[in-house]
């Protein structure tokens, strides 16, 4: 998935562009009509001893592995709570 980050005049914009069918299907799960709240967290995918903020790459054996990536951030999308 191609990712572009634009920082201009105080605006922060992140653009995801799918490069295959799986990525297209994944992005279809998020729509402009979703009633979601976004939070950005610094951290990794797992709280175990092994880090899973990772760069995924294909190794010489032809399968995929993950390499530790400490600079990872996560976008956490949750349903918005109704305003009272």
Overall pLDDT level: 78
Distance between the termini: 39 Å
Pick out the low-confidence regions: none
Oligomer: single chain
The tally of structural domains comes to 2
Radius of gyration (CA) equals 16 Å
Q: Strand tally, please?
A: 6
Series of secondary-structure elements, N-terminal to C-terminal: EEHEEEE
Description:
The protein is mainly beta. The protein has two domains: 1-30, no CATH class; 31-84, no CATH class. It has one helix and six strands. The protein has one helix at residues 21-27, and strands at 2-8, 11-17, 36-42, 54-58, 64-68, 73-79. The chain has a two-stranded antiparallel sheet with strand order 1-2. Strands 3-6 form a two-stranded antiparallel ribbon. A two-stranded antiparallel ribbon has the order 4-5. The longest helix is centred in the first third of the chain and has 7 residues, at 21-27. The protein is extended, with a radius of gyration of 16 Å. The N and C termini lie far apart (39 Å). 0% of the residues are buried. The model has no long low-confidence stretch (mean pLDDT 78).
Break the fold down into its secondary structure elements and pairings.
Blueprint: E1 2-8, E2 11-17, H1 21-27, E3 36-42, E4 54-58, E5 64-68, E6 73-79
Short note summarizing the structure:
The protein is mainly beta and about 80 residues long. The chain has one helix and six strands.
Features of the shown structure:
two-stranded antiparallel sheet; extended; about 80 residues; mainly beta
